[in-house]
Structures are given as structure tokens and as C-alpha cells.
Design brief:
3-stranded antiparallel beta sheet, elongated, Rossmann fold, 2 domains, alpha/beta
């Protein structure tokens, strides 16, 4: 029996990731796992299969060992390629200089045969890496969002009463197990849904960029999604913005509903990056993102000159970018 898991940690909270880690560490049969969660991968795997340009290569060891081995293999291939290119240039030069002279024509033909039989080394094209950058809007007051006696919920309360303040330029992570209301808290603070109790106030100059968990599952193409929100952009400008997020021409002209989770997320991040905001709200932004995109997003959030509210289940991500953590487990009315 083989267990097959495709991105199993997406949307799982930290407690459930720990449970899954322990389960797989003690699982007696084989499993195949697709994941971009590197700490999770390193704790449960002992073999990596790397798919690149339709070639599948096996590496024994964890993900860190794969990274080291892959980097070494790449350096060796690049060195061999450079050496062969010099050899090819020397042979071609010899043939060009000697093929017309009777005394050296035989040698020139021999070198040409050597060239023709040579098995050429090719380098794979460099993978397109995304570049993320969030634009800052005008500076708001010291307190961007405040709440008094706040209780969140729908038909029933999810939290105790809570006074909270989001100060200008603070980067705040919101953590807690699934079902406590992290996304509900974001929507309540933004005024998308009303508080169950209490009041929420916004600075008069607050401007929000909101990344929601939910994917866009429309029949519009990625390009049309951008144009709908930013109709003044030219075709070239819209395509350039999407390409900068690591999307290819094929992705840009594909319907949103057929894009992968990571590609869909990059389109939504692109929409955010075209907007000037002073409050960046990110709800599980790393779900589905590949390793390169996740690292680039981490860098972009750290460099963003504004206020951040972030929900994430990845401590490696939010600890690297946030200077304050709200634990919803301290405020919940549920038994955790």
C-alpha cells in the first residue's frame, strides 16, 4: 500500500502539521509526497525525486541534501559546458583557417568530423523567478485600526471581548488552530463583516490591500483579471506585471479556473502589487507557493514600508517578517 499526499499541509494549522509529521514518521509503508513546506519535508522524507524539463532525477536524503547535490551537479555541468564550448570554438577556428589549404585540408576534415560526432552539452533554461514588490500609499495616523470590546462571530461569538490596536508600520502575525476565526477577525477589522459585539475604527487615510485565501475560479484569463481591476494598463504593462510575478505567456492567457493553486496566487499577488496601500492584509499567502516564490514573498513583506496583518501557519515565514504575534487561542471561547 502506497500513501499519496499532494500538498497536505496547505490550510493545516501548526498543531495538525505536527500531528501529520508524527504520523508519517511512524508510518510503516511507503508514501509519495508533494509539498513546498521544507521543514515538514525534511522531517519526514529520505528520498527526493526532482522533476525538471521532463527529466526525473532521484536523490537519496532529505531536501537539504537534495539542494546541495543539485547545486553541485549544476556547477559541474556548467563547468563541463564552458570547457566544451571552448573546445568547439577552437575546432571551428582550426577548420575555418585550414579547410581551403591543400596541405592542411585533411586535418581540417578530421576536426570537422570530430565536431560532428561530438555529443553537445546543453544547459537547461533558467527557471523564471518571481519578483514581488508592494507599493506604499500615503502615511496614515499612528493608529491604523483600533477595536474596543471586540467580539467576532456570526450566529454565536468566537472570542471573548478584546481591545486591540494596529499601529502604523507594525507587522503583525495572527496564529491559532483552524476554526478559531483568524479569517473572520481579518474581515471584521477591515469592515467586510460587522463585529458580533464592539466597535472597530479605521484611520481616515487607511488604504487596504487584501489577499484572501479563496482562489479565483472564473473563466476570465489572468490578463483579463488584471485589466478588470486596472483598465488603464496597456497590454504590454499588464503582461509585464504578470510576468514579473513568475507567470509565463501560457499562464497569462489561461483561464483562472485552470491555473494551479500557485499560479492563481501569483495573479492575486500581482493585483495587490499594482495598488498603493498602507495596510497589507495577507490571509495564508504561502499556501500553494513554490519555494522560490515563498522566499521572494518573505523578502517583499519584510521590505514593505507599511502596516501588515498576516495569517499564516508557517512559523518560519511569519517569524521572519513580523514583529508582533497575536495568538487567537488566548481569546477564543472554544475549548482548544
Amino acid at each position: 500500500m502506497i500513501l499519496i499526499l499532494d500538498e497536505p499541509t496547505n490550510f493545516l494549522d501548526e498543531n495538525h502539521i505536527r500531528w501529520l509529521t508524527n504520523f508519517l514518521q511512524n508510518y510503516e509503508n511507503a508514501f509519495i509526497l508533494v509539498s513546498h513546506d521544507i521543514p515538514f519535508l525534511n522531517s519526514v522524507i529520505n528520498v527526493v525525486y526532482h522533476l525538471e524539463n521532463t527529466v526525473l532525477t532521484r536523490y537519496s536524503g532529505d531536501y537539504h541534501f537534495f539542494e546541495e547535490s543539485y547545486a553541485l551537479k549544476k556547477r559541474q555541468l556548467e563547468a563541463a559546458y564552458a570547457k566544451q564550448q571552448k573546445e568547439i570554438a577552437d575546432l571551428e577556428d582550426f577548420v575555418a583557417r585550414n579547410k581551403a589549404r591543400a596541405a592542411t585540408a585533411t586535418l581540417a576534415r578530421s576536426r570537422q568530423k570530430q565536431l560532428d560526432k561530438m555529443e553537445k552539452i546543453t544547459l537547461a533554461p533558467e527557471k523564471v523567478k518571481p519578483e514581488f514588490k508592494f507599493k506604499s500609499d500615503r502615511t496614515p495616523g499612528r493608529v491604523v485600526v483600533s477595536a474596543k470590546d471586540l467580539v467576532i462571530g456570526y450566529d454565536s461569538p468566537l472570542t471573548k471581548k478584546w481591545d486591540l490596536i494596529v499601529e502604523r508600520n507594525k507587522k503583525i502575525a495572527i496564529r491559532g488552530v483552524n476554526g478559531l476565526g483568524k479569517s473572520t477577525l481579518l474581515k471584521t477589522l477591515l469592515g467586510i463583516i460587522p463585529p458580533f459585539e464592539g466597535q472597530v475604527e479605521h484611520d481616515q487615510f487607511m488604504s487596504v490591500g487584501y489577499f484572501e485565501q479563496e482562489e479565483i475560479a472564473s473563466s476570465k484569463t489572468a490578463l483579463e483579471e488584471i485589466w478588470d481591476e486596472y483598465p488603464s494598463l496597456t497590454n504590454a504593462e499588464a503582461r509585464a506585471a504578470l510576468a514579473k510575478c513568475g507567470l509565463t505567456t501560457e499562464h497569462i492567457t489561461s483561464q483562472m479556473k485552470v491555473l494551479s493553486g500557485g499560479e492563481n496566487a501569483k495573479v492575486r499577488l500581482c493585483k495587490l502589487m499594482l495598488k498603493e496601500v498602507n495596510l497589507l492584509v495577507l490571509d495564508e499567502p504561502t499556501n500553494h507557493l513554490d519555494v522560490d516564490a515563498k522566499e521572494e514573498l518573505k523578502r517583499a513583506v519584510k521590505e514593505y514600508r507599511g502596516t501588515v496583518l498576516l495569517v499564516s501557519h508557517e512559523p518560519e515565514f511569519y517569524n521572519a517578517v513580523c514583529d508582533e504575534i497575536w495568538d487567537l487561542e488566548d481569546k477564543t471561547t472554544k475549548i482548544v
